Amino acid sequence: MASDDDYMAFLDKANQDPSEGQAKPQSSDKQKGEFKATDDGAAVPAALKEATKDSFYVSDADEPFVPVCLAWDEGGKGLPDEEEFASLIHHPDPASAEIEIQDPADWDTQGQYRAILDAVTKAGKGNDVRVYRVAKGKGGVKVEYWVVTTEGKGAGAKLVGAKALAVES
């Protein structure tokens, strides 16, 4: 019969992670199928940081809103079309990306994302706000909603806003 200490040592060893001490491969956003939401070193507007802090998009999987801040040198001409937007977020195939542009009022018919829409409008200083519905993979069960506007004009312009994953079964 083993002592209590011997039995605990046995249990501890049995419950150890078998890959402990081995190098783990780093996973990139591309491997996870994530789209680019912020440029490296980008300064996300404070209104967006605050609005996305505790906000979730309600669907089959309630997912948090994430701030968006991407360089958009053509901000003077307004918001990007579907293919330009796909390129900005580093979609693997911008020409055939399943992207649908929606009016914010049609996207938020119940008014439950008013704080997000207000923060995006504030960050863009009243510029037009648009919602991009981006399908993730085939079948369209997982989609991302990107609520964005432009900030600034010309070479320093940015596309700012928030995005959230939705599972629509």
From TrEMBL:
Enumerate the InterPro entries for this protein. NuiA-like (IPR056539)
**Coiled coil region boundaries:** none
Region (Disordered) residue ranges read 1-43
Q: Where is the composition biased (Polar residues)?
A: 16-26
Residue ranges with Basic and acidic residues bias: 27-39
Q: Name one Pfam family in it.
A: NuiA_2
The source's superkingdom equals Eukaryota
Which protein is depicted? Uu.00g072690.m01.CDS01
Biological source species: Anthostomella pinea
